[in-house]
Structure formats: structure tokens, C-alpha cells
Design a protein that fits this description.
Blueprint lengths: L9 E12 L2 E13 L4 E5 L6 H6 L9 E6 L2 E2 L5 H9 L1 E5 L10 H12 L5 H10 L15 H12 L6 E5 L7 H18 L2 E6 L2 H7 L2 E6 L2 E7 H6 L4 H11 L5 H4 L12 E8 L8 H9 L4 E10 L2 E11 L3 H10 L3 E8 L1
Parallel strand pairs: 3-8, 3-9, 6-7, 7-8
Antiparallel strand pairs: 1-2, 1-4, 4-5, 9-10, 11-13, 11-14, 12-13
Helix pairs in contact: 3-4, 3-5, 5-6, 11-12
Length: 349
Amino acid sequence: MTSDGSGAAILFDHVGKSFAQKGGQVMALDDVSLVVEPGTVTGIIGRSGAGKSTLLRMVNGLERPTSGRVLVGGRDVGAAHGAALREIRRDVGMIFQHFNLLSSRTVYENVALPLEIAGIAPIRPRVEELIERVGLTDLRDRYPAELSGGQKQRVGIARALATQPKVLLSDEATSALDPETTQTVLALLAEINRDLGLTILLITHEMAVVRDIASHVAVIDGGRIVESGPTYDVFTHPQHPTTRSFLGGVTGLTLPAFIAGRLQQECPEVEAQEVIRVTFAGAHATDPMLSMLTSELGVPVNILAGAIEEIGAHPFGNLLIAVDAAQGEAARDYLERHGLLTEVLGYVE
């Protein structure tokens, strides 16, 4: 990437954003820097109020930074006005959580709207191509009230692609959908990314969405990016407590309540078990390592919780196990020598 950000699809360069509220300024974003590479799918995950929607809205100029820069294809969005801003916005499509379709327009007419506004012709071939891509050819003359939630979101995706953008923004696009429909919409977005080479930036509060589609992820908390990187790396080596909190229900990082309530940080004097988190990744991710541990070292293993996942073609998983505290060091050394990651969470009697 060059110093002007032209090598990135999107560049957030030390971005800050504050809002005036009664009693003073509220900082929504604080010194956010992030590079979104061309052709990637990047997920921004955070809790409500973390700043992710504000960050997304800066890419198409709906919000402007108080400090720093947001560059799209090397162009400074915050400094653009008039025709320059309109040109940037033509390169940035957006799909919304609640679809934002015009109820008085058919599927065809909703998809055609951005082309009409931009004065792009011919309209019909482009609209028909997009409606076919999202699988709605038979519904082209239906109105939004006649469509399911998943069908409405497909219309929203087609409309966002109308002006042939280079970047597609997704604002919680699946959070209003049921799980099965969510999977079909995510599959469509992955297909669009693959076939068109489109850069996708999506915000979500669901780590499962990031797992299923994103090649990269950034975790935002309190207006700051607290962790970012390739999705596989972040899932297998989470560093920040916020990341671990989000991952808990997806990758088996969370102890059952009845174990967590008994966990001690120091090994008690009486006979105890060491609670270990084992992350399975790399060459031995699918090997029967716990069986080998027991058979080769004679260490009994109690499995407390866990989950096995896959990102792309890469399997990984976390298991929470308990072994006799006197054998904990030997068990961890054995697992680590076979390429697995271990972490002592505490001890239970």
C-alpha cells in the first residue's frame, strides 16, 4: 500500500469521531486505523454502541471524521463534496438491516432506482442481469409486501450492485433474518465476492457471520479497534477479552457455569484438577491428540466443553479439559510439542 492509501480498497487513517451532546462531546471513534484490502470480505464486529455503524457510514460520506482520514480507492471521502462525493458514492454500494425498499415500487423498479438517479443507461439489461443473479427473475413484478425477508434482502443486494460499485457495505444485513435465510444470503454475498472480486465490508454483532464469510475481521470496543487480522488467526489466537467474549459461543471458549463458578486461580492445597484450554489448529488439528495423551503418558482427561469449527478449508477448535494438577505441566508440554496451543484457566477441586 502506498502512503496515499491507493493500494487499499478502504483505509481508515487515525480516524476519530465525536458528537456534540448535552453536557459535552461524546467520542464515538478514537484513533481508528484499519486497512481493507481489495477483494477481501472484512467483518467489523462489536456490541451495540461500540462505534461500528459510525465507522461504516464514513465510507460513503454519511458521516465525516472529526480527525483523521477515510480513503476509498485513494480518495479522501471526508474532503469530498458535490460531484467528487457523488463519484465516490457510485463506487460504494450499501445493503441495510431493514432492506429500505420503496413499497410503491416493484422488485424491478427498486433495483432500477440507483441507475435512474445516476442517469446511467441502458437500464433494462443491467437490472435484468442483477435480478437473475440474486435469483428473483420470477418475482420481478412483485412489490416488497409480497416478498419474504430473504427475498427483500436479495432485492437490496441487487440494488446495491446496480451502479457496479467496487465496494459493498453491509449494515447488519442478516440480523433480521432467520438462521436458514441468513445462510442463503451469506452464500450469495460470498458468491458475489468471488465472481466479481468485490470488496465487502460488513458490520455485525454475530461472530458466526464473520466465521462463515469474512476473510478478515476487526473487533471494535468503545470506539477503538482492539484486535484485527485474518479471521482464522483471530479465531485461533484471540488476544483481547472482548474478542474472547464474542468467540465464546462459537468456538467453545466458554466454560460451563457450574465449572466457572468453582474455578480458582491458585492451585489449592488439596487434590485438584488443572483446567486447560486447548486450541486445535495447524497440522495436528484433526489428530486424536487427547487419546494419544492418555495412551502415551497415562494422563486421564476430562472434557468439560468445546467446539470444532472450520474457516474455509482450515479446521480448528477449542476444547476445555481438566487433568490432575500434578500432571498438568506434562500434559501441556506434550500437546504443545504437537503444535497445539494451551492455556491454564485455573483449578477446581
